[in-house]
Amino acid sequence: MSDPVLPADDAARATAKATLAGARHGALGTLDADGAPQVTRVAVLADGPDVLILVSALSLHAAALAADPRASLLLGEPPRKAIPSPARA
Fold first, then answer.
1. DSSP 88
2. What is the β-pairing status of strands 37-47 and 50-53?
3. Burial tier of 44 (Cβ tally within 10 Å: 0-12, 13-18, 19+)
4. Strand 72-75 relative to strand 25-31: parallel, antiparallel, unpaired?
5. How confident is the model at residue 49 (pLDDT cuts 50, 70, 90)?
6. Among 18, 53, 70, 81, which residue has the fewest nearby CB atoms (within 10 Å)?
7. What would be one Pfam family of this protein (predicted)?
């Protein structure tokens, strides 16, 4: 089986930069105190090579990041009208 991860070439880097430059929202994934994943929508802004996210010091994800800085960020715009979906554990 071939490796599904392709090497980053100039076209891939240009696509990533354009995606980041145009993004205004993202989904921030962190780990809560029990190690369970939690994902929240955040505002994002590209600032040169850095990505800035709007995080309130009172939020659950701020506490999670203070305890464990590992995180993921999925960039994308929210739909014009959010469709709620019930979650079940």
1. -
2. antiparallel
3. buried
4. antiparallel
5. confident
6. 81
7. PNPOx_N
Query: CA–CA separation, 27 vs 77, rounded Å?
Result: 10
**CATH class, 22-75 region:** mainly beta
Give the pair of three-digit tokens for residue 48: 């040169």
Question: Where residue 84 falls among pLDDT bands split at 50, 70, 90?
Answer: low
CA gyration radius, the chain: 16
In the numeric block, the tokens 């105190």 are attached to 33
* pTM, rounded to two decimals: 0.71
Q: Read off the amino acid at residue 75.
A: L
* Residue 54, pLDDT above cutoff 80: yes
d(CA 6, CA 80): 33
Q: How confident is the model at residue 88 (pLDDT cuts 50, 70, 90)?
A: low
pLDDT at 89 over 60: no
